[in-house]
Input
Amino acid sequence: QLQLQESGPRLVKPSQTLSLTCDVPGGSINGGGFAWSWIRQPPGKGLEWVGYVYHTGSTSYNPSLNSRVTISLDKPRNQFSLNLNSVTAADTAVYYCARGSLSLIQGVMGFFDYWGQGSLVTVSS
Amino acid sequence: EIVLTQSPGTLSLSPGDRATLSCRASQSVTSNFLAWYQQKPGQAPRLLIYGASRRATGIPDRFSGSGSGTDFTLTISRLEPEDFAVYYCQQFGRSPPIFTFGPGTKVDLK
Output
């Protein structure tokens, strides 16, 4: 059973950068076929996909966040990370890391099969 | 960019009832790239259905998915107490490669 674990500061000041890391113990982010993703959920609201990084380092981001977000891989540590800059209170949310399927197996792809437990990050001075 | 709409916003039912949840896309979605998730309070979402109709590992057969084009449905044939939760649909678009979630349907106890 693949596990994902978020870590990072739980409180960030407005205008600063939110940084989170996702550990993937027991699995490898080096292989292809997966979108190593960040998804967030403001308190009491729905899910919003933030973006993903592929094993090659290529990325795709939510157009609404594109100018502020960077997702990167740390292959030696088997981790991937999220940086979201110029944060405001609207960025307060539970941030989940997740594995997305980008491998067209039996004709299907594009779903998230493993999730971390989530990390609540609050933006406040 | 495809927008997903889910209805109803809230579904109030009793254990044993049949639940029918709708997910509608603003333009045609590749069925093989449509998924459903269940989320309970304080927990991460759990994959229920992928490829519009394929149950994920360990998901009971009372959960089923169907649909194509712009209209998709998640059906829970007989609600168990543990099924009261929020359900999200999600699609993947290959060009550009982005993921989109619907706003969710809450199934609560009548």
In short: The mean pLDDT of chain A is 94. The radius of gyration of chain A is 14 Å. The first strand of chain A starts at residue 5 and ends at 7. DSSP finds no helices and eleven strands in chain A.
